[in-house]
Amino acid sequence: MSENELSRIIVDASYQIHTKLGAGLFESVYEEVLNYELISRGLSIERQKGIPVFWNEIKMDQGFRADLIVESKVLIEIKSVENILPVHQKQVLTYLKLTKLKLGLLINFNESLIKNGIQRIVNGL
User: Fold this and answer.
1) Rounded to whole angstroms, how far apart are CA atoms 51 and 65?
2) pLDDT tens, 60-103?
3) What is the CATH number of the domain that holds 59?
4) Which of 14, 30, 77, 121 has the smallest CB count inside 10 Å?
């Protein structure tokens, strides 16, 4: 399945979740429910996957944790904030570069319309 096909499934699942739960919950709640929903759709998910940073060819264990990685192809960063800031977009792009993934979805569930809360961020796609 391509990154774009996975993206459609993730966006649909996010829409379903937002429709039922609404805005204003903690990020951890949306992460838990989205993880469950994507697994129930038959997708493989890595949750809170530790990603190391390499510096001068030395592995630094203090990297970052990806909220969700779907089918080893799409990285999802979940937010529940008033506004997405440019630093959030840069964060996802950096995560994509470190993981060598091509597509990231920055999803802010704290929007009245979820379509306004989903941003695609690409790394050479």
Assistant:
1) 6
2) 876 789 999 999 999 999 999 999 999 999 999 999 998 999 99
3) 3.40.1350
4) 121
